[in-house]
Amino acid sequence: MAGEAVEPATPSLLILTPVKDASRHLDRYVALIEALDWPRERLSIGLIEGDSRDETWAKLGALRPRLDARATATTVIRRDFGFRMPPGVPRWAPAYQLVRRGILARSRNTLLMRALADEDWVLWIDVDVIDYPPDIVRRLLENGGDIVHPLCVTVPGAPAFDRNAWAEGGQRLLSDFRGAGRVRLDSVGGTMLLVRADLHRDGLVFPPFRYGLPSPHIRDVHPVWGRGEIETEGLAAMAADMGVQCWGLPDLEIIHADA
Q1: What is the mean pLDDT, run by run of 10 residues, along the chain of 259 residues?
Q2: How far is CA 193 from the centre of its chain?
Q3: Among candidates 74, 68, 246, which has minimal Cα distance to 149?
Q4: CB neighbours (10 Å) of residue 143?
Q5: 3-state secondary structure (DSSP) of residue 238
Q6: Regarding beta strands 172-173 and 166-167, do their DSSP bridges make them parallel or antiparallel, or are they unpaired?
Q7: What is the pLDDT of residue 1?
Q8: What is the largest CA-CA distance in the chain?
Q9: How far, in Å, CA of 207 to CA of 237, rounded?
Q10: Quick one: pLDDT at residue 41?
Q11: Half-sphere exposure (Cβ direction) of 35: Cα atoms closer than 13 Å
C-alpha cells in the first residue's frame, strides 16, 4: 500500500569464536546461540580450534549438527600454533602476554579470512562468555556504531572483566562509565565485539604484532611490552587510523566465566 512503512531487512550476521581447551564451555556456548533472537536464514557461525589438550575438537564435532541446524553456514576449522602456557602459569602472566596475544590475533585473523562471506556484521564472542540476553545483537545494533562493545563482567554490577576495553589512555574501563549511555572507547576487547563486516573487508584485522605509531589513540608505553598495541587493542588503534570510532555500552552487561 502506498505510503506504508517498510520493515528494514534483518542484516546478516556472522558469529566468530576462537577456542582452546574449551570443552567445558561449549554446551553453554551453543545453547546461548540457539536462544539468540536472530533468524537462522540471516546467521552464520565460525569457530577455530588450536593447541588444545582437552576434548575441544571432538566436542566441536559432536555439537556440529546443532550449529548446522542453527545457521545457514557453519565453518569449523583447526590450526595449531605450537604454543602452550607453562604448567601452573596463568594465561595473564606478563612475561607471556606478547606471544600469547599475538597467537590469538593470528587465530582470529585465520578464522575471519576463512569464514567471512557476504555477511553485514561480524559478532566476536569468547567461548567462555556464559550469559547474555537473547536480544543482545539488536541492542548492540541500536547503538548505531560500526564497532560496539558491551560491558563484560563475572557477576552483574561487578567491575569490568574485559580490561582491554578502555578510554583515556587506559585509565578508565568500561565499567567506570555506568549510567553514561554509550561512550567512546580508545580500545576494545574480544569477549564480545560487534564489527561492521565491511571494515574487515577494508583491512581491519587483529594485529599479531605491536601496532601503532605515536598517536592519541594508543598509550605511549604499554605497561607490559612497551610501545604499541596488539590483538583487540591493536584493532581499535587501527580502526582509529581508518577514521572509525569504537563505542562501549556500559549499561549492557554480558557475563563471563570466572577466570
Answers
A1: 60 98 97 98 98 96 98 97 80 79 96 98 98 98 96 98 94 97 96 98 95 69 70 95 97 94
A2: 4
A3: 246
A4: 18
A5: helix
A6: antiparallel
A7: 45
A8: 68
A9: 10
A10: 97
A11: 13
Give the CB-side neighbour count of residue 134, counting CA atoms within 13 A. 7
The cell for 87 is: 604448567
The pLDDT, as a whole number, for residue 133 is 98
- Output the nine-digit C-alpha cell for 122: 561480524
In contact, 139 and 211? CB cutoff 8 Å: no
What's the pLDDT at 7?
Answer: 52
Distance CA(114)–CA(76), nearest Å, equals 9
C-alpha–C-alpha distance, residues 259 and 253, integer Å: 17
Query: 239 is written with which cell numbers?
Result: 580502526
**Pairing mode, if any, of strands 129-131 and 246-256?**
antiparallel
Residue 204 φ/ψ, nearest 5 degrees? -75, 115
Residues in the chain: 259
